[in-house]
Amino acid sequence: MSGVLYRKLFDDAALFPPGNAPMGEALPAHRAHLAGRRAGYVGPFLVSDARVAELRTVLGRERRDGDDRHANPGGPGPGGADAPLTVAVTVPGGAEEVGAAVDAVLADPALRLSAVEVAAAPGRTREAAEALRTHLPDGAEGFVEVSRQGDVHADLVALVGTGHHAKFRTGGLTPEAHPGEQELAESLYAAVGLGVPFKCTAGLHHAVRHTSREGFEQHGFLNVLLATGVLLGGGAAEDAARVLAERDGATVAGLAAKLTDEEAETVRGTFRSFGTCSVTDPLEDLVVLGALPAPGPR
């Protein structure tokens, strides 16, 4: 299998915990990823609606600096800052705040909106989906974060036919923020059975299931990809849970290597991407597992 399984899989969430990179570091690092040999694996720059104004300020400063450099040809070029930045905006405040978040991005020609991810309280998924329908521009995707505290299946049913996708939280800063294998498997099973594509956020720091330094039991993103494939092939939630629980890297990498490009495309049509505060770490995991070649010099 080629790198089809990992294409645009890693949304750049450097601004978010636990990385919490400053804007002035996260933005140039994102551009460096896009300029490198692994650009094909990197998704949009993730920013919360509360930080869109800060991002626009930084981009405005870059434009002014670029104009100065163009006026003084002896200085360095703008370093790629002239191209619109593709962003996905998170809206943790819910449906009522989607419109303002979209307007703030669309007001700046230096930004291109690829997606909006809005959190929904239990039982309010339909309301969030309606807000996305009302405010999203053509070409932008909508994701509704489904609460673990509610009836996940019912909330996913509310997304059927809306054209919007689900978002599952797979980790956080406490042990309780990490769903177990069976819980996540049942959520994935429901989404696949209903034909609702999804993305994940938080906790998928490495390719294979492991125990973190803090003692958190964390899912591997490669396990989640494989579990999605098992479900798409007609497997039950218990089958997906067994795949999610697998901790042997060679076993997990071997299963991924058996996927054809067509199978990988099908998996990625359902598991769209996940947010990671480090784009480099998960890619390095794949190199160590032999799933991707080491990047050569440019």
Please tell me about this protein's structure.
The chain has a single domain (3-288), classed as Aldolase class I (TIM Barrel), CATH 3.20.20.70. It has eleven helices and ten strands. The two termini are 24 Å apart. α3 runs parallel beside α4 (125-135) and α7 crosses α9. The chain is globular, with a radius of gyration of 19 Å. The protein has 298 residues and is α/β, with parallel strands linked by helices. It has helices at residues 23-35, 52-71, 98-106, 125-135, 152-157, 181-194, 221-232, 237-245, 249-257, 261-270, 280-288, and strands at 10-12, 42-48, 85-91, 111-119, 141-145, 165-169, 198-201, 210-211, 217-218, 271-276. It has an eight-stranded parallel beta barrel, surrounded by six helices.
